[in-house]
Amino acid sequence: MTIKAIQRFLLTYLLLEISMVSAKVPAVIVFGDSTVDAGNNNQISTVLKSDFQPYGRDFFGGQPTGRFSNGRVPTDFISEAFKIKPTIPAYLDPTYTIKDFATGVCFASAGTGYDNATSDVLSVIPLWKELEYYKKYQKDLRSYLGNDKANEVLGEALYLLSIGTNDFVENYYVTKRRSSEFSIEEYQNFLAGIAGNFITELYQLGARKMSISGLPPMGCLPLERTTNILSGSDCIEEYNDVARIFNEKLQGLIEKLSKKLVRIQLVLSNPYDILLEIIQNPATFGFEDAATACCGTGLFEMSYMCNKITPFTCSDANKYVFWDSFHPTEKTNAIIADHVFRNCLAQFS
């Protein structure tokens, strides 16, 4: 059996396992950053793109789509697990129409964050603009399906938000603007406030089933570990602590909003523990390397730094937890999606 055949077998097995969850979800609607961007950054003027090889080399047809992975991202697997479709299209991709978007659409933009200042760093789509695109999508969907059917889809759809890491690793810890204005706790509270306002506005627009993703152990990203060379390139525990505490704040926010917003179903899909477990025990999950990544040296390559002429890119991404210095491989994404389904989304069934 070839490497790609084995890969497809393993991913199909995971999907069969998680498809046991069968909620009434007619569409999956995605907001966020590069963890879930399906190619929106292809259509804007920014240096943060991934619409070239070797990105997408294990995607259907081996084509780069703008996803920051060798294949699919977690939201694609979630869509397929709900038996909707195997991939969620990017809203700005001109090859798709409202017919395609009626069962799922992605508004995410790589490099963005809760904070508008984060989206300014690499000139990407801010979260407020993603919401404006969604409002336009609602109008188009009502024109396409009719008001009653569209409102049913919008009310029963699953809304996924995956965002926040860039606010810290691209903004707070890199630029002086926010770190001079806020202590780290104040900044966490500032971001949580934005998250609360975003969820509330989505609710007012008709959304009822929502999942907001917590932060990963961002101190263990290969890009961050390279800055910790004096400690043997170990994970930066300060960053991990910040992520963990922020996730606790998000959980508190969810509990508060769940009491306030009538009939909302709101959950935290926290990737922190499962990804940290994978990183600490890679062999248990069938990986060989969790410290570096597949592309190039695996230490600092991302976006244009990870391209088809980058030397030393690995031949089998399934051996690696990370694809580039910031983003997981398709195999890792499938495992995370499986975990989210079992532990977070089952209540929608």
Automatic annotation (TrEMBL):
Organism of this sequence: Prunus dulcis
Keyword entries, A-Z: Signal
Pfam family, one: Lipase_GDSL
InterPro entries: GDSL, GDSL_lipolytic_enzyme, SGNH_hydro_sf, SGNH_plant_lipase-like
SUPFAM superfamilies named among the record's database cross-references: SGNH hydrolase
MF-aspect GO terms: hydrolase activity, acting on ester bonds
Signal peptide (residue range): 1-23
Name of the protein in its database record: GDSL-like Lipase/Acylhydrolase superfamily protein
Family to which this protein belongs: Belongs to the 'GDSL' lipolytic enzyme family.
Top-level taxon of origin: Eukaryota
